Amino acid sequence: MLFNSLPFAYFFLLLVPLYWVLPRKPQTVLLLGAGYYFYSCWNPKFLALLVASTVMDYFCGLAVARIDDSKKRKAFVFLSMALNLGMLGYFKYVNFFAESLQVALTQMGMHVSIAHLNVVLPIGISFYTFQSMSYVIDVYRRDIPPTKNFIEFAAFVSFFPHLVAGPIMRPTTLLPQIQNKRTFNVGQFYEGCYLIFWGLTKKVVIADNLSPIVNELFGRWVTIDGGLAMLAIYAFAIQIYCDFSGYTDAARGIAKCLGFELALNFNLPYFATSPKEFWGRWHISLSTWLRDYLYIPLGGNRGGNWFVYRNLMLTMIIGGLWHGAAWTFVLWGTYQGVLLVGHRLLEPYLAKIDPVNPMDRAFWRVTRIVVTFHLVCFGWLIFASKSLQQVGGMLTAIVKRPSIPEANYLVPVLIVVLPLFLVQLAQYLTKDLNIVARTPWYVRSLFYTACFYAFVLGGNFGGSKFIYFDF
After folding, report:
1. pLDDT tens per residue across span 4-41
2. With contact defined as beta carbons under 8 Å apart, do 60 and 137 qualify?
3. Which of 137, 138, 378, 409 is the most exposed place for a label (fewest CB within 10 A)?
4. Residue 43, phi then psi, degrees to nearest 5
5. Going by C-beta distance under 8 Å and a sequence separation of 6 or more, which residues neighbour residue 214?
């Protein structure tokens, strides 16, 4: 069931009034049932995986809290990690590693046939396994007491607004909201409706209208010239942002309508002035998860520079592999690690550039934003490509066959991107992501009217799935 579909609209419109007339405990039971129904609409068979992860981590959390022996406590943490990472590894990576092994053996002159398993990737498994596993780790660290109420814990794991594509919520943030009483707040509900509307507008008006152009140009990468190759990369950068941030905006809005607050997952990432700042603005819940559960346990900033660089590289490579079972994702993660290490090396020199004149300071900031955006876009080329040959081919086109993009491709891209840019520029300059909601009523009316007509006249209502459902 997709947020951008009529079945979800019917589901949500029936759920909300029923939810708010119930007391807290029945509300939680209803949330659990809604989460399992929502997930089952994709494939009921894989609901067993969600339940298995939930049951195992519930009892592991109780055991870790009850036992004092350090070795035994760690054993239950490892059990949780083995189950969750084992499920994730089998369904997401078994064929990738098998195929990679077969290629390596062939290159060594050993012709071995390794069976390709017919494995379907369960939707959202990368998200709910990380969330459920982090609960056991947080209980082990004494950051949160274990919950003894299985219904509340299961509702936490299966909370449907963010179940299949995030944001990845911490137990310390979401679980208390499930355990505490929730009261209807008109302001929160209004803000939730705005986020749903804006998120779906980004998805069906911008991302889904860019999708055919991106797919066509990346699909015929062998023959396109440099101008179309650049346009394809820029269009994909906007498409993946609007698709993913549109989902999380809608997820946050749906949660607000139910009395919950989910973490901000995107904060104007293309206005970042450095790779480090970009990862503080893009997919924030994953960035902080990798920082707290991988980078810091590896050693973080402790030790010499080489240890820090190693930790950054390992974190980003694993983060790249989390996105998908392909060498392009490994390369993308490696590239992101190189950017972070490179920025760390250059940071002392960049800090010395401190223009005094306001115009010079603004020019320097714009320059850093433009450079960072293009560094990120090169990463998106790697991310979106199906092979390393495609990456090289499109780069060759850009360098050897530069051109101005054809109007029949350029104009549709500009039509959907420019309004988004103006809204985000206003958000950036005012440092207020909710600037639209705080403008005078007549400005809001014009904005909502424009979005409504764009939604109705230019929206893609084919119910296309969100990009991050594949991860």
Report:
1. 888 899 999 999 999 999 999 999 999 999 999 999 98
2. no
3. 378
4. -160, 105
5. 232, 235, 236, 239, 384
With CA atoms as reference, report the closest residue to 196 among 257, 259, 262: 257
Q: How many CB atoms lie within 10 A of CB 222?
A: 10
What are the CB-based long-range contacts (under 8 Å, 24+) for 180-186? 180/24, 181/24, 182/24, 182/27, 182/258, 182/259, 182/260, 183/259, 184/20, 184/259, 185/259
Cα 141 to Cα 121: distance, rounded to the nearest angstrom: 31
Q: What's the one-letter identity of residue 436?
A: V
**DSSP classification of residue 121:** P
Spans in the chain with pLDDT lower than 50: none
Q: Which two tokens stand for residue 40?
A: 């089952």
- The CA distance from 98 to 113, in Å, is 10
Instruction: Tell me the backbone φ, ψ of residue 68, rounded to 5 degrees.
Output: -95, -25
From 162, 283, 323, 343, active-site residue: 323
Residues contacting 106, CB < 8 A, separation 6+: 112
For residues 298 and 310, what is the distance between their CA atoms, to the nearest angstrom?
A: 9
- Left, alpha or beta for 398 (phi > 0: left; psi -120 to 50: alpha)? alpha
d(CA 335, CA 341): 10
- Backbone phi, psi, residue 50, to 5°: -60, -45
How far, in Å, are 11, 124, 210, 262 from residue 160 at the CA level?
A: 12, 11, 27, 12
Q: What is the pLDDT of residue 421?
A: 93
- Residue 59's pLDDT is what? 94
Q: How many CB atoms lie within 10 A of CB 25?
A: 12
Q: What pLDDT does residue 116 have?
A: 60
Tell me the C-alpha distance between 333 and 424, whole Å. Answer: 27
Does this model's pTM top 0.70? yes
Tokens of 199: 């998120």
pLDDT, residue 232, reads: 96
User: What is the structure's pLDDT at 98?
Assistant: 67
Q: Assess whether 111 carries a catalytic annotation.
A: no
Query: HSE on the CB side for 331, CA within 13 Å?
Result: 17
> Most distant CA pair in the chain: distance in Å?
72
Residue with tokens 């819940």: 285
What are the tokens at 289? Answer: 């998860």
Residue boundaries of the structural domains of the chain: 6-183, 188-470
Q: In this predicted structure, what is the pLDDT of residue 357? A: 87
C-alpha pair distances (Å), 165 with each of 89, 145, 257, 318, 340 = 18, 26, 19, 18, 25
**What's the full length of the chain, in residues?**
471
Residue 44 neighbours by CB under 8 Å, 6+ apart: none
